[in-house]
Each structure stands twice: as structure tokens, then as C-alpha cells.
């Protein structure tokens, strides 16, 4: 019987090792797909399970976060459907989506709070499900509701969290550093329940950073703050993002534009957009050209310009839709000269972050 138990345990451990190896292969393939690479001799995989890297032209690209084909099902409801993405070290990425889109579910999976129904996710190469303890060592997480022990003093609470992370001799130093970094000096001797919401958010960010993680996940970090608190917390996040990977969810478009170099949009459990801010707006808007004239112009006349496919009247001018692959700026300028018209505005059509979000999540 003892021998049977021994073999059962050995078989289970072997199965877990096999699963980790398979997950690692999936993570590397996902990473290659994300940065549009084909497998080649210049790429290599690190054997150490603590991370994996890809060498491209003798430059190492570290992926802090990798999500590969992740789905999450609650009964009959699919909260996430086959989501794949990756985030490089040092990026500040905005995660957007309407209520119920799956943002918080994705963040909970990445933080090892809940398991995915299928697919894999990793933080610095650690599988968030199979290696959750190691994952937490590299991850700081601020949940949406910012759960704090309200009867504890600020400094007392940070010491408590630091002991959970087993900081040892570094505990006092890290607590002092976090109090200074988050601007809690004047509030550190108060009980948490006595703090304003802005300072409570600072405490939440401090506890997420106290063990010096490489990745920081912030779920609605500025929700409910007044304008002054918004500015302070945004500046804090920007400072943190100088040497951390930050993934933050928000409904405030100005916040994404102010903080993030890249935006990921999730709608109805699916990833619908993942790109740089400016590129995303251009992709949605297309190659349209906005033009305004000093004189009155008829739509029928504009349609005669070579390369123009469609014409839309706007409040202060016209939106011209070009034929595929056509750059009509020179043609429009030449036509205006021939018609003795004065152009007062000529620009490529662009969309604000709000307009881009609206079009993608309708």
C-alpha cells in the first residue's frame, strides 16, 4: 500500500512537471506571436523556470506578463474567451472595457486569486496557477475595493504586510521607503479609517509595492477620487512606472492618455484591441482626411476629386474618405487651387480615446 502511494505521488509530480513544460512552450509561442516573430536560431529559451527570454539580434526582450488563450467560465457565463496578450518589462499598459467586460476577472487570474478555466498565464515566467507562491513574490496587486485593516495604523499595517512577505532585515527599510515614495509621512501615525480616500489609495499602493515586485496590477486605482487626489495618484503611478511594469484598469480615458503608452481593450470577454495609443486611434479612424474651406463648397464637387470615395459633412468642414491605398492630400490641395478656394484646415482624421473606445465596445 505504501509503495502504491509512493508511485501515485511520483506520477502526480511528473504530471505537474510535464504540465509546466507544456505551459512554458505555450508561453514562448504566445510571446513570439505577440511580437510577430518566427522561430529562428537567434531565439533561445532560458532553462530556469523563473523566467524565459527571447534573444533577437543579440538583444534580450523580457516579457513581464504573458497570457495565452485564457478563458474563464462561471456556470453558463463566459467572463473571458480565449484572451492572449503579453506585456514587456517597463511598460505602463491601460486595460479598458465596459462594466462586465472581464477586466477584473483577468486581473484576478494574473494575481493567482482565481484560476482560469483554460489557457495559461505567467508573471516573469512563473505559471500563476501552478507556481502561485513564486508569482506573488514578483507581483504587487491593488484590488478595486482596496481592502485594508481600518483599525490598524498606517505604519503598523505596512509592517504587517512586510512580515507576510518575509522581508526580514529589510522590513524597516522597505516600510520607510514606501512611506516616503507614496507621500504618507504626515499620515503614518493615523489609523487607516481616519484617512481620506486618496490616502487610503496611497496605503494600498504602498502595500502592493513593499516587497519590490517587478509587476504592479492596479484595478481602478483612482476610482472616486477628487481632482486633486487624481493628479497626485496619477503622478505616483507615473513615477512607479519608470522601473516597474504596470497594468491598470480604468474608465477614465484622460487617465489612459496621460499615463499609458499602450492600451488593451476588452469587450464581452474578448480582446478587441491591443496597440499604442496613437496607432489605435488611426486604425479605427482609417485614412480619412478632414478639410475646411473659407468658401462654401458642395459635396457633389468634392466627390469629383480624384481618389475620393466618399464625402461626409461635418460641423466645420468635410470628411473625405479616400479610395483604398490612396493619399489624397495633394489631389485636394491641387483641386482647391484650380477652383480658387482657400483651405483653412487640412488634417488626417483622428479619434479621441473616448471615440475609439465607443466604436470598439458598441
Provide a descriptive summary of the structure in words.
The protein has 3 domains: 2-61, no CATH class; 65-282, P-loop containing nucleotide triphosphate hydrolases (Rossmann fold), CATH 3.40.50; 286-354, Alpha-Beta Plaits (2-Layer Sandwich), CATH 3.30.70.100. It is 37% helix and 27% strand. The chain has 12 helices and 15 strands. The chain has helices at residues 2-34, 103-110, 132-137, 154-164, 171-181, 197-209, 227-240, 253-259, 277-285, 299-302, 329-338, 353-360; strands spanning 53-56, 59-74, 77-88, 92-96, 118-123, 126-127, 139-142, 215-219, 245-249, 262-267, 270-276, 289-293, 308-314, 317-322, 343-348. A hairpin with a 2-residue loop joins strand 5 and strand 6. Helix 5 (171-181) packs antiparallel against helix 6 (197-209) and helix 9 (277-285) packs across helix 12. The longest helix has 33 residues, at 2-34. The chain is elongated, with a radius of gyration of 26 Å. It starts with a helix and ends with a helix.
Give a nutshell description of this structure.
The chain has 362 residues and is of the alpha/beta class. It has helices at 2-34, 103-110, 132-137, 154-164, 171-181, 197-209, 227-240, 253-259, 277-285, 299-302, 329-338, 353-360; strands at 53-56, 59-74, 77-88, 92-96, 118-123, 126-127, 139-142, 215-219, 245-249, 262-267, 270-276, 289-293, 308-314, 317-322, 343-348. It folds into 3 domains: 2-61, no CATH class; 65-282, 3-Layer(aba) Sandwich (Rossmann fold), CATH 3.40.50; 286-354, Alpha-Beta Plaits, CATH 3.30.70.100.
Amino acid at each position: 500500500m505504501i509503495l502504491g502511494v509512493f508511485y501515485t505521488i511520483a506520477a502526480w509530480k511528473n504530471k505537474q512537471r510535464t504540465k509546466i513544460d507544456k505551459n512554458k512552450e505555450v508561453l514562448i509561442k504566445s510571446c513570439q506571436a505577440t511580437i510577430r516573430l518566427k522561430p529562428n536560431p537567434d531565439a533561445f529559451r532560458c532553462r530556469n523556470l523563473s523566467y524565459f527570454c527571447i534573444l533577437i539580434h543579440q538583444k534580450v526582450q523580457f516579457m513581464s506578463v504573458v497570457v495565452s488563450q485564457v478563458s474563464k467560465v462561471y456556470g453558463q457565463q463566459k467572463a473571458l474567451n480565449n484572451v492572449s496578450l503579453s506585456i514587456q518589462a517597463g511598460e505602463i499598459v491601460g486595460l479598458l472595457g465596459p462594466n462586465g467586460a472581464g477586466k477584473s476577472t483577468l486581473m484576478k487570474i494574473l494575481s493567482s486569486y482565481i484560476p482560469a478555466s483554460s489557457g495559461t498565464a505567467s508573471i516573469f515566467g512563473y505559471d500563476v496557477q501552478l507556481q502561485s507562491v513564486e508569482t506573488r513574490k514578483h507581483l504587487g496587486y491593488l484590488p478595486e475595493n482596496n481592502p485594508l485593516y481600518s483599525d490598524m495604523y498606517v505604519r503598523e499595517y505596512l509592517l504587517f504586510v512586510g512580515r507576510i512577505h518575509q522581508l526580514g532585515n529589510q522590513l524597516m527599510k522597505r516600510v520607510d521607503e514606501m512611506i516616503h515614495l507614496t507621500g504618507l509621512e504626515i499620515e503614518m501615525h493615523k489609523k487607516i479609517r481616519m484617512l481620506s480616500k486618496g490616502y487610503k489609495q496611497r496605503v494600498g499602493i504602498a502595500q502592493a509595492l513593499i516587497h519590490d515586485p517587478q509587476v504592479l496590477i492596479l484595478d481602478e486605482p483612482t476610482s472616486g477620487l477628487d481632482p486633486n487626489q487624481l493628479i497626485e495618484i496619477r503622478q505616483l503611478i507615473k513615477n512607479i512606472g519608470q522601473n516597474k511594469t504596470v497594468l491598470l484598469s480604468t474608465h477614465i480615458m484622460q487617465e489612459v492618455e496621460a499615463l499609458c503608452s499602450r492600451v488593451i481593450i476588452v469587450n464581452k470577454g474578448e480582446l478587441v484591441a491591443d496597440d499604442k495609443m496613437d496607432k489605435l486611434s488611426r486604425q479605427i479612424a482609417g485614412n480619412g482626411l478632414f478639410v475646411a474651406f473659407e468658401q462654401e463648397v458642395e459635396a457633389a464637387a468634392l466627390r469629383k476629386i480624384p481618389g475620393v470615395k466618399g464625402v461626409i459633412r461635418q460641423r466645420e468642414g468635410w470628411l473625405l474618405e479616400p479610395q483604398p491605398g490612396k493619399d489624397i492630400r495633394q489631389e485636394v490641395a491641387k483641386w482647391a487651387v484650380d477652383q480658387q478656394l482657400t483651405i483653412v484646415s487640412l488634417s488626417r482624421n483622428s479619434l479621441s480615446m473616448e471615440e475609439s473606445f465607443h466604436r470598439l465596445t458598441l
